[in-house]
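[recover] target loaded
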């Protein structure tokens, strides 16, 4: 009996050793069960992830527990302000480019596809935020803490018609020497060797505002200014300067500081009269089927923030994850509102107000804030309900807030504004004063973005024309 058991043990060991040898001799096409050399932490392209996440989370967590609450104390002591180089830098000094070989790597492509075989824009947004961080640190150096403060715009220029390798590139295009900088990026079809990217091959253009902070005090800190050398760089710098000044002026006219103007008040009153008509039993006017009340358009989501989505400072969530999460909720909101598949046009100016800690709970609320053409037009307030348009532009507002796991403290973390194109006529109607303010704020944003895009085209800057009505590519 012992001999029989011994023979079985020998056979089992032999089979195990053959399996190990077979596993080692696998073909290149076979996928590894585990390979620590490849870093797929959050869906971001591995080259960008490797440059964004510097330390395994378990090591950062142990260091935090050893050092106590002040995790930046040693780092701050080793990087005195006098050691920082604040001499002006060229735009080209911060230039960085990454190629996504989507057409040549099916497993990489898996991370970027949705159920219809289209490119998931939310995943590209994560890559763009990670790339903007890399570019920012090439400009500022490693001795500061740099965070995403705002996304000034993300616009679809020419939708993809087929899957191809994509080139993500960008550089700092506006920096005065204070704490903030504007980073301009683009996503384009990879050109032939030695060729320049053609205008019609540019899928997407965008601009991020990054802010540098002192690692110990978390207060804004000065960074190198830009040295302008060419006429093209001067145009880019001027666009960034205009954008910076426009945001400053906007902060003075926000609805929290100023009441709606006369024109906006007239529109609010006209929509209120429409509501009275819809509820007046003595008239034959009824709410059209394509008019939806704003409060019924809302969608909600909540999720706990895991360390796989952290930034390079280990204990906060990186902005790209928030872009992806808010975009996909906005897409669902637009689809639910219209009962159709929306086409993404742009991310309009959006802000990151407060950091999102690892381990906290993130709450998102998506609302249809504005539709164009609107329900009531100040130039033609008669028979507005009967005006039909083949297409509708809809702006989705996503508000985010974060709570600690005990739900003892809550703070807002940002507002994100997405514009989609719908191939049908549908309109949103606010009912409460708060909803009217959301509608007015969105209407103002639509008008400002249109003015900025016109100015960009006149100045000869990057194209931000968006998609033509009804044009659909393979990005969603």
């Amino acid at each position: 009996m012992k001999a029989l058991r011994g023979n079985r043990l020998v056979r089992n060991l032999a089979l195990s050793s053959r399996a190990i040898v077979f596993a080692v001799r696998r073909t290149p096409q076979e996928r590894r069960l585990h390979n620590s050399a490849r870093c797929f932490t959050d869906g971001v392209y591995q080259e960008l992830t490797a440059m964004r996440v510097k330390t395994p989370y378990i090591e950062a967590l142990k260091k935090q527990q050893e050092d106590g609450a002040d995790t930046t104390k040693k780092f701050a002591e080793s990087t005195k302000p006098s050691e920082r180089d604040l001499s002006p830098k060229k735009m080209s000094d911060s230039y960085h480019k990454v190629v996504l070989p989507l057409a040549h790597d099916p497993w990489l492509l898996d991370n970027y596809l949705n159920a219809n075989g289209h490119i998931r824009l939310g995943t590209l947004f994560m890559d763009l935020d990670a790339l903007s961080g890399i570019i920012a640190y090439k400009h500022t150096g490693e001795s500061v803490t740099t965070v995403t403060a705002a996304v000034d715009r993300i616009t679809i220029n020419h939708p993809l018609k087929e899957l191809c390798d994509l080139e993500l590139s960008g550089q700092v295009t506006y920096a005065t020497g204070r704490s903030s900088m504007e980073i301009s990026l683009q996503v384009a079809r990879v050109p032939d060797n030695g060729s320049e990217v053609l205008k019609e091959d540019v899928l997407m253009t965008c601009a991020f505002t990054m802010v540098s902070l002192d690692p110990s005090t978390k207060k804004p800190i000065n960074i190198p200014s830009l040295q302008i050398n060419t006429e093209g760089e001067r145009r880019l710098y001027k666009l960034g300067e205009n954008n910076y000044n426009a945001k400053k002026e906007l902060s003075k006219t926000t609805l929290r500081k100023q009441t709606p103007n006369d024109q906006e008040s007239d529109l609010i009153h006209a929509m209120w009269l429409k509501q009275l008509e819809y509820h007046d039993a003595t008239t034959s006017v009824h709410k059209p089927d394509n008019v939806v009340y704003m409060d019924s358009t809302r969608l909600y989501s909540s999720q706990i923030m895991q360390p796989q989505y952290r930034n390079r400072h280990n204990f906060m969530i990186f902005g790209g994850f928030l872009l992806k999460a808010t975009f996909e909720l906005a897409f669902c909101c637009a689809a639910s509102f219209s009962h159709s598949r929306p086409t993404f046009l742009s991310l309009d100016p959006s802000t990151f107000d407060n950091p999102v800690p690892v381990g906290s709970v993130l709450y998102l609320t998506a609302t249809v804030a504005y539709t164009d053409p609107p329900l009531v037009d100040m130039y033609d307030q008669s028979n507005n309900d009967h005006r039909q348009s083949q297409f509708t532009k809809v702006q989705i507002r996503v508000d985010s807030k974060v709570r600690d796991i005990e739900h003892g403290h809550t703070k807002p973390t940002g507002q994100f504004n997405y514009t989609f194109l719908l191939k049908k006529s549908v309109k949103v109607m606010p009912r409460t004063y708060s909803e009217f303010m959301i509608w007015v704020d969105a209407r103002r944003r639509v008008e400002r973005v249109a003015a900025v895009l016109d100015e960009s085209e006149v100045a000869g800057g990057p194209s931000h024309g968006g998609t033509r009505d009804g044009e659909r590519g393979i990005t969603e």
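[recover] notes: The CA atoms of residues 24 and 223 lie 50 Å apart.
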